[in-house]
Amino acid sequence: MLNQKLTVKTAQSLAMTKQMQQSLKILQMNTIELREFIDTQILENPFIDFPEGAGLGAKENLEEHRYESVQTKENDGNFREDYISRIVDNQITLKQHLIDQIFITIHDNKEKLIAVRFTDSLDDNGYLTENISEIAKALKCETAKAEAVLNKLYKLDPIGAYARNLQECLSLQLKEKGIYDEVFANILANLEGIAKGEINKLIKVFKITLEEFKIRMASIKKLDPKPGRNFFTHITQTLIPDAFIFFDTHANLVVKLNNEHLPSINLNSNLYKDTLENLKTKDDISFCKHRFHDAMFIARALEQRANTIFQVTSAIAEEQYEFFEKGINYLKPMTLADIAKKTNLHESTISRISNKTIATVIGTFEIKYFFTSKIKSNFAENIYSSSAIKNKIKELIEEEQANEVLADDKISAILQSRGIDISRRTVTKYREAMNIPSSHQRKRLKAAAS
Length: 450
Description:
The structure is a single chain. Strands 2-4-3-6-7 form a five-stranded mixed beta sheet. Strands 1-5 form a two-stranded antiparallel ribbon. Mean pLDDT is 77; it is low at 53-90, 234-238 and 373-383. The protein has helices at 2-28, 31-44, 81-90, 94-105, 109-120, 132-139, 143-153, 166-177, 182-189, 191-195, 199-206, 210-221, 234-237, 269-278, 282-319, 321-326, 336-343, 347-352, 376-383, 386-399, 408-417, 424-433, 439-449; strands at 48-49, 64-67, 243-247, 253-257, 266-267, 357-359, 364-366. The protein is mainly α. It starts with a helix and ends with a helix. The relative contact order is 0.14. Strand 6 (357-359) and strand 7 form a beta hairpin. It is elongated and about 95 Å long. It has 23 helices and seven strands.
């Protein structure tokens, strides 16, 4: 008898563990993944149907939330070598590749959001589609501030991204190689004339020989005029926001779930009752009940997902009211713990929806963009690519002074202080992969050059 009770308890415990795991997976899924999951469930479970006017998943009382001001709220409780293979295997987009690096290289949260806004403006080839003044105006920040952030973005991989035209794209790549000079500047400024065959005329203006011109052109032809073309593009085209934050006509901040695209299901209770009445054996009855309970669990998990996204988005809207009203200079430092306290949700729950997107009056952002660097320790494995970490190591070494060359353990300590869990051994491996000399060798080279 005791063994039988233990067996039942063990089975129930395993079932709960399986359901909890499934609930967490549902919470983390994006809209497209969730739609595919529901399609599969509908095929496998006869008691699950799409609702009429599919997409109306959240309850009416979850639909909208208003804020009269920051104080008022309602009580509703959301380098290249090893990376190319990851691009092919996991369909990494250009924008995600760049955002990975932004989280490493930019630590100021205001600058981070400006950087994300610039990244959102890129076309498939990596070129900016908006000018700096337009982006600065949208974010309500100084143009000089936006330009300063853009200059940091120019250093990200692939070099040439964020350029406004072909000339700037190629010049960025030449600067990165350390060979950009006045002659290259003149050649890039006259590419149209070169294409027309006006070479003899132009080399006289450039004051170079034909042989030097050919050498220069050979270097230019090795550059990539479309730095974004090695990345997948179709994923970004199907990105659907999970929620919206906007102002109504009375200047109240409104949060709404994207109900039109929010996956949901209906339970076919009538079919369940009819089926249950016609079953004879205990096994068939048990199987039928289990399938209906599975359907109910999925319905609850979907509702919980919608509720969590709404709660977190609402808390962000309340916390960052002045940011949405006045712009980037009014962005408040905010952590997972801050939102957890406001929503009574666990930090781990909030972190699981951090990849959900919010379309706002300023731009479209993933939830994680609103958190300060403290989020990094929770997301290190997910958002830090090896190429981004290599880029940060390279940047630290490039910025070191002759009298203060950074050893690998020092680089490891700096990165760990920024929430990046990396050992000295890994720093050494990445540094050697980039063919960067050791600290002792760099110290000798700097001494010889001085």
